[in-house]
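Re: the request from the purification team.
They wanted to know what the chain is likely to look like in 3D before they choose a buffer screen. I agreed to run a prediction and write the result into the notebook, where they can find it.
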Amino acid sequence: MLLKRVISSAVLIAIITAVIFSPYACGIVATLLIIGGLYEFFTMLEKKGISLYKYVGIAIGAIIPLSIMSRFELTKNWELLFILIVLLVLIIMQFRRRDNCGVIVGISTTVFGILYVSWFFSFVIKVRYLDNGLGLLAAVLLITKLGDMGAYFVGSLLGKTPLIPRISPKKSVEGAVGGLLASVLAALIIKPLLGFNFMHLIAIGLVLGVLAQLGDLSESLMKRDCQVKDSGKIFPGLGGILDSIDSLLFTVPVFYFYINTVVNK
């Protein structure tokens, strides 16, 4: 399992390294990951017997990163208008169904999937398109993923105290602390990419470290509810696409807003 995890991680690192230098390539890969993540998410829900429009949800979810890549903004806050349109489309599609059972759950979970996977992960593209986007995206990826690695290895070696066993039996308090320290250390190491003072770096490391673990636990909670071990099997040892990006779903949006509201205000 460890060997498979290392090989899959090496492949992912190689892909990221190959595309991160090009904003366009980065956007395309992010869009493909969103499509794959949405497919896995909706498939998990189908296993619970929830009736939804999987492929319509995937198509709608793909519009978000593609619109960011094309710099399309119908209005200044077009996301709110987009959510309204999505709701209207899903409700109209429900009119065609003969069975009214599960309408609210189907619409709610479809919209949630679009927001949770597509909108949150599309901030990867937004960060890349910022001034110094290459350094900023590399920074948030390193802080998040080194935190993941720290939690995994410290938890594997020293983990004895269960963190939240009903959600993820293998996660430990020791692993959570190790992941948090790894995120802070990563933030300090990559100071040249950000240029912030040490207090800022420690704060960023702590906040992103906590959010990364919340993202991981959130997906674990959903998988536990759907009674699946992994969201998919595309990456041996790691699981599915959603398993690989879950920690980024919270860190990247918060990092983007931090850069825009605190640094670039």
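For the purification team: The chain has a mean pLDDT of 87.
Please add any questions underneath this entry.
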